[in-house]
Write a structure and sequence with these properties.
Arc Repressor Mutant, subunit A; 4 helices
């Protein structure tokens, strides 16, 4: 079972895997179609909390139209 901390790490690791820079978004549909759907209901609640924490920490911005995540300058500094 994935905890919130592991989910946050997975999201940041995906940006790291892509060698993402500031303002880069995760690949379209990866976050919800490829990742979120693999989580059980408990993990999905933890996912929502994890995203809120990443946003509140200033590491990512959640885009309203697509629900996707975009890396901030602070997030880019963290993963490099």
């Amino acid at each position: 079972m994935k905890e919130k901390k592991a989910i946050k790490k997975d999201i940041l690791d995906k940006f790291r895997e892509l060698d993402a820079e500031q303002d880069m978004e995760l690949p379209e549909n990866w976050l919800f179609d490829d990742y979120f759907t693999t989580l059980d209901s408990y993990e999905q609640k933890a996912f929502k909390q994890a995203v809120k924490e990443l946003v509140s920490q200033g590491l990512v911005i959640q885009l309203i139209k697509t629900r996707n995540l975009k890396l901030t300058a602070k997030g880019a500094n963290l993963i490099h």
